[in-house]
Amino acid sequence: MHRYSKRSQAMIAMLLLFSLGGVMLVNLFKPSKSFSEAENRSLEQLPPFSFHSLVSGKFTAGFEKYISDQFMARDFWIGVKSDADRAMGKKESNGVYLGKDGYFIQKFTPPADGDLENKVNAIHSLAKAAPGLRMFVMLVPTAASVLADKLPDYAPAGEELTYLDQVKQALRRDIRFVDVYPALHAQRERSVYYKTDHHWTTRGAFYAYQELGKRMGLTPRKEEDFTIRQVTDEFYGSLYSKSGFRHVEPDSIELYTLKAGESCIVEYVDEGQSSHSMYAMDNLGKKDKYTVFFGGNHSLIKITTGLRDGTKLLVVKDSYANSFIPFLASHFSEIYVVDPRYYEKDLKALMQERQIRDVLLLYNANTFFEDPSLNQLAESPE
After folding, report:
1. Which of 30, 107, 240, 321 has the smallest C-beta neighbourhood within 10 Å, fewest atoms?
2. Rounded CA gap, 368 and 111, in Å?
3. Please, are residues 332 and 311 in contact by the beta-carbon 8 Å criterion?
4. Three-state DSSP state, 110
């Protein structure tokens, strides 16, 4: 019996060694992937070898990341791990909560000490760029606030709204803070946020557009003025990629287009490209289908509409604005869209050169507090 037990243990050990060796050989000789569709990111490549990189530890660190990213059937094993985590009751992964009704909700990270004040000072500086400037600030609460009832029971709620209120109170009275929380919360049962992505849906953006119209003195379009069409029902968004949670239903994306029709020219200034549509329909075939709106983020976009009244608007923004801006096209003759994360020129000079009198700063709460480029948004480059 003892001899049989030893023989069995030896066989198991040999099988384990052969299995590990096989996996190692497959990992070493299989072609490396450059991009993960499931995680929506570039994968680590084999680092170049040198004696210096080996001694310094850079090669081994890079090789470890390479093996992790290129591991055989990586997406399968990520799915297995997420299923195991869910089976054990785990409700958080990589800063993403697994909420109720299939919602993935990004954890809110409070700003560091002094950062809120720096952001407010930058907004004040930008507001002084031109005499008579009308400045509107829309900081959009994320699903963590609007859909707080979907959060796991242990997850903190309410912090985000507290910090947004501090920004509102700190802004000068001539800067108009557009509070869209009540409108979004009132419509929270109508899918105002994606389940697998951190953005609001086009419907959520529409409700916010109506609130901005009231503050700007515009007459916002009604929902019945638009043709609403679903352009995909296979959207797995950023939180799906970030969390690692799998086996969930995908989101759908809707586009709102005016029934009366509208014309525009969209110029991607730095790229030297233009289009007659605000929608990059080809991107619906990509992993990040949210880039159907303007093809994603760009440093500077100029939109020329069919209006001839000379009204101009500057939108300083993050990606939340991408699905929002099409609603503004029927109210301004020119719309300039700047993403400070990529724009390296003098923003004040742009405003003065184009004689812009209306400015909208539109960010979601998380990006507003996390994005360091906002602190320099009104400074001139050296």
Report:
1. 30
2. 9
3. yes
4. coil
Q: What is the spatial distance between Cα 110 and Cα 160, in angstroms, rounded to a whole number?
A: 7
pLDDT tens by residue, 364-377: 999 999 988 888 76
In the chain, count H helices and then E strands: 12, 15
What would you report as the CA-atom Rg of the chain, rounded to the nearest whole angstrom? 25
Which one, of 146, 226, 157, lies nearest residue 191 by Cα?
A: 146
Distance of CA 214 to the CA centre of its chain: 26
Phi, psi for residue 91 in degrees, rounded to 5:
-120, 15
Which residues of the chain fall short of a pLDDT of 70? 1-47, 49, 51-59, 61-89, 377-382
**Helix (H), strand (E), coil (C) string for 158-219:** CHHHHHHHHHHHHCCCCEEECCCHHHHHHCHHHCCECCCCCCECHHHHHHHHHHHHHHHCCC
What SS3 state is found at 41? Answer: strand
Query: By CB neighbour count within 10 A (0-12 exposed, 13-18 middle, 19+ buried), where does 202 fall?
Result: buried
Residues linked to residue 318 through DSSP beta bridges, in sequence order: none
List the beta bridge partners of residue 302: 267, 336
* Interior/surface letters 166-183, b for 16+ CB within 10 angstroms, e for the rest: ebeebbeeebebbbbbeb
Pairwise CA distance, residues 12 & 16, whole Å: 6
Please give the structure tokens belonging to residue 345. 């020129």
pLDDT digits (tens, 9 = 90+) for 229-249: 999 999 999 999 888 888 899
* φ and ψ at residue 43, rounded to 5 degrees: -100, 150
Of 209, 210, 100, the closest CA to residue 147 belongs to: 100
Tokens of 167: 């920004």
Rounded-to-integer distance, Cα 236 and Cα 18, Å: 37
Please give the Cα distance from 165 to 221 (Å, whole number): 28
Which DSSP string do the residues of 260-315 spell out, in sequence order?
T---EEEEETTTTEEES-SB-GGGGGSS-GGGGBTTS--SEEEEEES--S--EEEE
